[in-house]
Amino acid sequence: MDQVDIFKALSNKTRLLILKWLKDPALHFPEQERDFSEAGVCVGQIQKKARLTQSTVSEYLSLLQRTGLIESTRIGQWTYYKRNEAAFQLLKEQINKEL
Prior knowledge:
- By secondary structure, the chain is an alpha+beta fold.
- It has one domain (3-98): Winged helix-like DNA-binding domain superfamily/Winged helix DNA-binding domain (Arc Repressor Mutant, subunit A).
- 62% of the residues lie in helices and 14% in strands.
- It has 7 helices and 3 strands; from the N terminus they run H-H-H-H-E-H-H-E-E-H.
- The protein has helices spanning 3-9, 13-23, 25-28, 36-39, 43-50, 54-66, 85-98; strands at 41-42, 70-75, 78-83.
- It has a 3-stranded antiparallel beta sheet with strand order 1-3-2.
- A hairpin with a 2-residue loop joins strand 2 (70-75) and strand 3 (78-83).
């Protein structure tokens, strides 16, 4: 887990909002075919809520995934995203230890 890359990923307001939305998806997104806790949130719903282009949202999600803060699941033609809570716990522990 590279802290510098993670902090760079967290330095964007929309990426922070996406992480907030994914923390409690039932509060921030309409119901979907797949269960939030199992699959995550469909990328289309994230794009709609963010009100950004598909390419921008995909870039943001890709960056968050590369840092390990979110995970993706591909089901058919759709990709679903959810937070990687273990990564947040590890980051918290590293910050408490080193800073």
